[in-house]
């Protein structure tokens, strides 16, 4: 067996090690340059392997993107696990702020995480990672507003938070409202869906 030439990438690394490195490179790339930069070729180049190497561990581009997005959901779940509060309403407020902070600090990862094709595909159990986060919100909304369709209210609140995050990232809300902080907008959104905080 011939020795690999110096110009050839070393792909003898254990599968688990290279698989993790490809994901690490993808996470770094999406953080620095956004979701549009996540091509198989670029991830392979930055990982120092041939452009075909990722397909040994991720047969499709979608599977690699799902694995990268799964890291984002894991980080978001870890952050939301730190939320505390004396009441369900207070806890929802904390979760909402954590969610917005994550979205604004990680716009590339945030965009990737909520791509419909990744969530719909079911690759790597991505829905199993994301849906429990929504389930927590539904449960808390049900405690704050008993007798309502908690799933629908939670969905509407999530949609508003998502829109707030996106419009704030684009700078549109700052321009339209003159606000330099999203706190007041967040409280207004929560009041609209849950009622004023003093009532709960």
Strand content: under 5%
Mean pLDDT: 86
**Residue share in helix:** over 70%
What is the molecular shape? elongated
Summarize the biggest pleated sheet: none
The Cα radius of gyration reads: 20 Å
What is the string of SSEs from the N terminus onward?
A: HHHHHHHHHHH
Determine the structural class based on helices, strands and strand pairing: mainly alpha
**What is the CA-CA span between the terminal residues?**
73 Å
**SS element count, helices:** 11
Low-confidence stretches: 1-15
Task: Write a structural description.
The protein is mainly α and 200 residues long. It is elongated. The protein has 11 helices and no strands. It has helices spanning 15-33, 40-47, 54-57, 61-80, 88-105, 107-113, 116-121, 126-144, 150-170, 172-177, 183-194. Mean pLDDT is 86; it is low at 1-15.
Quickly list its features.
200 residues, mainly alpha, 11 helices, 0% strand, disordered N terminus
Secondary structure topology:
Layout: H1 15-33, H2 40-47, H3 54-57, H4 61-80, H5 88-105, H6 107-113, H7 116-121, H8 126-144, H9 150-170, H10 172-177, H11 183-194
